[in-house]
Model the fold of this input.
Amino acid sequence: MSATSPLLTIENLCFDFDGQSEKTVNALELSVEKGEIVCILGASGCGKTTVLNLIAGLLKPKSGTINLRTEAGKRNSIGYIFQSDALFPWRTVEGNLMLAFDINKSLDRSKATETMQQYLAMFHLSRQVLMKYPAQLSGGMRQRVSIIQSLMFDPDLLLLDEPFSALDYYTKLSLEEEFCNLVKEKKKAAILVTHDIEEAVAMGSRAFIMSGGKLAKEFGIRRETENEITRGSEEFAKHYREIWMELKSIISG
Done:
């Protein structure tokens, strides 16, 4: 981790739904820096998505703090990417990608168009896709467009709730790699909720197992962006086993 201040700092975060006897999120602590992807794993219902919703402001904490260090006055500092794309079916791909410009007319349209073209190239989409509607795209292409749609708002922090789980294996691997490259190149930060240990090892700088409302166990995976871990390597398998054994112990325990 670098000596700079984290982009996101969460301290003593607590949350419970009304009428619930136990806290869904209980004194949770987390910091995330630019250029890293933090993965959160855990059993279904352990509160992973609730944490994302709290960070996004969709839920209000009962106590604790969530601090996002971003430019003064900047809007749309958080992008939220779901398992199912949030594209408007009645708008073309270009219409969906230019949504940020439509919402904020103070943006420079030519610059927004240039940014859109850069992201299309980064995610291996041709310009021909711009005139299509979401229903005319494959699942992998829709998810690429959905990610670009969020990026067009220029968020500093990206929240991902199992965004690749419904895709075929080859498309999933391709999108994981493209997203990792995006986070590095654009100096974004990301929190990825997943049930897939392999995905966490492949993408994460760090991985956490959530249990009892807290991030109970931390695993360092890639502290430096140059230190890539190849699927099938001995190092990859080692990280996978460590996380699996801990996750299995928590779930069964």
About this structure: The CA atoms of residues 61 and 73 lie 23 Å apart.
